[in-house]
């Protein structure tokens, strides 16, 4: 059965949610969205799921493997059990949107122009990037009357007006700013965030969802990451650390007092904290401290077509998708015996049905966890790569180091503040993003 790619929110409400092991987690009670006004692309952020114990939690949309006619299947059984709380800039479809009044300007529905229409339901569509976005809105043509079926019209989202990030009234400044961040790169959000007063910056950090905040924090120096982490409550801070890449989370925890770092590690999900603990065991100046323990790792029996499908995962960073590492089971790091690697360019030249075990590069040496940063820099310069395998002395794959992580550590500590083209005379430089208007102080 083909997975559903279009669905109305009313259909999702009440649907059973199952983990990858088919165990029931709960039922959908609402859908959280980030609304952008004037018909701009607005994403669904996640589901409000009521668990069997009646506790309501937030489940990010990227955790969903597929939506089936009768149930929703998750890609992972790891979910945050923190009670759901609505944040600034977020709305829920069933609670905030359905039943609210809007105006439309669809030229195909001119009989609706100039009228205040009530929303009956909202349609979501899955894009090629795996995001779920609002595509259409069902509105009542006439107010429903008792005993009669209401007349509905369906309006494209691009022609709907009257809903803002702050709700259906006047837009809230913080909510609108968070909504503007939706289409921006995390690095650009990080740059703009630090043009704001500290109080507003911390307020935005509190209101961003966990995944988005983790992406933004990874683009900041560790001291500023620690500053934002202090603005969060303890449980939320642990959740954000879980969403960060393990190497970035390890770097951030290394900046905190030992007692606080240990407490946060204890609060994190053990599956998420284990790779972070391993990275923190390496000396900060070694390749082991720079690597990510979650590269693209497959067995030699994987076909080229399957490997390319894994490499297309939009959640996989570009540098890591450039290389497939081939090992004996297990494929979770530390893996079984490391056999070699295959560059993405090689895969593109091979027949789809070929096995990747026959495409290995036999001459490419690995890096080792205790190699220093200069060795890694020489490695990338010598072999013209952006990603390389990191092994232990027993030839097990521990992870992969990417050239962007290496550069981040080799550049001066203040390179982000100094900007893309620093002025040596002024000690500063041109920012990566032109700052927006300064908030009033």
Any chance you could write out the topology, listing elements then pairs?
Blueprint (H helix, E strand, L loop, with lengths): L5 E3 H4 L3 E3 L5 E11 L8 E9 L4 E5 L3 E4 L3 E4 L16 E2 H5 L3 E4 L12 E10 L5 E9 L11 E5 L3 E2 L11 H8 L5 H8 L4 H10 L2 H8 L4 H9 L3 H10 L2 H10 L2 H10 L2 H11 L6 H4 L6 E2 L5 H8 L6 H4 L1 E5 L10 E6 H5 L18 E2 L4 H11 L3 E5 L5 E6 H8 L4 H4 L2 E3 L4 E3 L11
Parallel strand pairs: 2-7, 14-15, 17-18
Antiparallel strand pairs: 1-10, 2-3, 3-4, 3-8, 4-5, 6-7, 9-10, 9-13, 10-11, 11-12, 15-16, 18-19, 20-21
Helix pairs in contact: 4-6, 6-8, 7-9, 9-11, 16-17
Q: Any idea what the radius of gyration is?
A: 24 Å
Q: Characterize the main sheet.
A: 7 strands, mixed
CATH-derived topology of the largest domain: SH3 type barrels
The total count of helices amounts to 18
Helix content: 25-40%
Average pLDDT number: 86
**End-to-end CA span:** 56 Å
**Which architecture of the largest domain per CATH?**
Roll
Tell me, what's the shape? Answer: globular
Assign the CATH class of the largest domain.
Mainly Beta
Number of domains: 3
Strand segment tally: 21
Residues in β-strands, percent: 15-25%
Structural class, please? alpha+beta
In CATH terms, the superfamily of the largest domain is PRC-barrel domain
């Amino acid at each position: 059965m083909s997975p559903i790619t279009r669905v109305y929110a009313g259909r999702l409400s009440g649907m059973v949610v199952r983990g990858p092991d088919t165990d029931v987690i709960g039922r959908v009670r609402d859908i959280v969205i980030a609304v952008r006004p004037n018909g701009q692309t607005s994403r669904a952020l996640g589901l409000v799921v009521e668990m069997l114990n009646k506790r309501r939690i937030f489940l990010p949309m990227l955790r969903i493997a597929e939506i089936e006619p009768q149930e929703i299947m998750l890609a992972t059984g790891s979910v945050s059990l923190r009670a759901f709380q609505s944040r600034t800039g977020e709305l829920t479809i069933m609670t905030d949107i359905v039943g609210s009044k809007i105006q439309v300007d669809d030229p195909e529905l001119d009989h609706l122009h100039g009228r205040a229409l009530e929303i009956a339901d909202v349609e979501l569509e899955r894009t090629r990037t795996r995001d779920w976005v609002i595509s259409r809105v069902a509105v009542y043509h006439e107010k429903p009357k008792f005993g009669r079926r209401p007349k509905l019209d369906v309006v494209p989202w691009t022609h709907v007006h009257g809903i803002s990030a702050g709700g259906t009234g006047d837009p809230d400044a913080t909510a609108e700013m968070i909504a503007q961040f939706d289409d921006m790169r995390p690095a650009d959000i990080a740059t703009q965030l630090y043009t704001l007063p500290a109080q507003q910056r911390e307020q935005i950090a509190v209101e961003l969802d966990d995944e988005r905040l983790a992406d933004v924090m990874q683009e900041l120096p560790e001291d500023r990451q620690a500053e934002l982490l202090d603005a969060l409550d303890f449980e939320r801070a642990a959740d954000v650390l879980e969403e960060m890449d393990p190497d970035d989370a390890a770097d951030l925890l290394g900046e905190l007092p030992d007692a606080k770092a240990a407490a946060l590690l204890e609060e994190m999900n053990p599956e998420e904290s284990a790779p972070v603990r391993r990275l923190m065991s390496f000396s900060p100046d070694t390749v082991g401290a720079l690597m990510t323990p979650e590269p693209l790792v497959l067995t030699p029996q994987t076909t080229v077509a399957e490997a390319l499908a894994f490499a297309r995962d939009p959640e996989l960073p570009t540098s890591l998708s450039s290389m497939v590492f081939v090992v004996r089971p297990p494929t979770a790091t530390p893996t079984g015996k490391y056999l070699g690697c295959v560059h993405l360019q090689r895969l593109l030249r091979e027949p789809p049905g070929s096995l990747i075990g026959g495409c290995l590069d036999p001459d490419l040496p690995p890096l080792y966890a205790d190699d220093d940063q200069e060795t890694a820099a020489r490695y990338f310069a010598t072999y013209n790569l952006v990603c390389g395998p990191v092994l232990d002395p027993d030839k097990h794959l521990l992870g992969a180091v990417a050239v962007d992580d290496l550069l981040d550590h080799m550049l001066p500590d203040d390179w982000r503040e100094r900007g893309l083209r620093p002025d040596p005379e002024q000690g500063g430089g041109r920012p990566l993003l032109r700052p927006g208007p300064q908030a009033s102080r």
